[in-house]
Amino acid sequence: MAIKSVSIRIEEEMLEKLGYVADYEGRSVNSHVLVLIRENIRAFEREHGEIDGVICPDANVKPTRKPQGM
Questions:
Q1: More confident residue, 23 or 61
Q2: pTM given for the model
Q3: What whole-number distance in Å separates Cα of residue 57 and Cα of residue 16?
Q4: Cα-atom radius of gyration of the chain, to the nearest Å?
Q5: Of 2, 26, 35, 49, which has the most beta carbons under 10 Å away?
Q6: What percent of the chain has pLDDT over 90?
Q7: In 3-state terms, what secondary structure has residue 33?
Q8: pLDDT-based confidence at residue 64 (cuts at 50, 70, 90)
Q9: HSE-CB of 10 using CA atoms within 13 angstroms
Q10: What one-character DSSP code corresponds to residue 1?
Q11: Distance in Å from the first CA to the final CA of the chain
Q12: What pLDDT band is residue 3 in, cutting at 50, 70 and 90?
């Protein structure tokens, strides 16, 4: 599977909050965005049926690692 790059425009505050959540989950912002996209696709397919194509759910995503004491 080819890996493509996407650029987005995002408000600074939203990016900071996304970074906070990603860090809490033990991921980079990029990896966390991929998790969110995959979850959205799965939800869409549950409601509307499978989209043609293969998506590997573990590609490019580090395992969740929550900070101690939270």
A1: 23
A2: 0.71
A3: 25
A4: 14
A5: 35
A6: 61
A7: helix
A8: low
A9: 13
A10: -
A11: 36
A12: confident
- Contact status, residue 27 vs residue 61, Cβ threshold 8 Å: yes
pLDDT, one tens digit per residue, over 24-47 is 999 999 999 999 999 999 999 999
Give the integer Cα–Cα distance in Å for 65 and 43: 24
Give the span between the Cα atoms of 14 and 9, in whole angstroms. Answer: 10
**DSSP class of 28:** -
Within 10 Å of residue 30's Cβ, how many Cβ atoms? Answer: 11
Nearby residues of 28 by Cβ (< 8 Å), 6 or more positions away: 22, 62
Q: How far apart are CA 43 and CA 10, in angstroms?
A: 23
HEC readout, 38-54: HHHHHHHHHHHCCCCCC
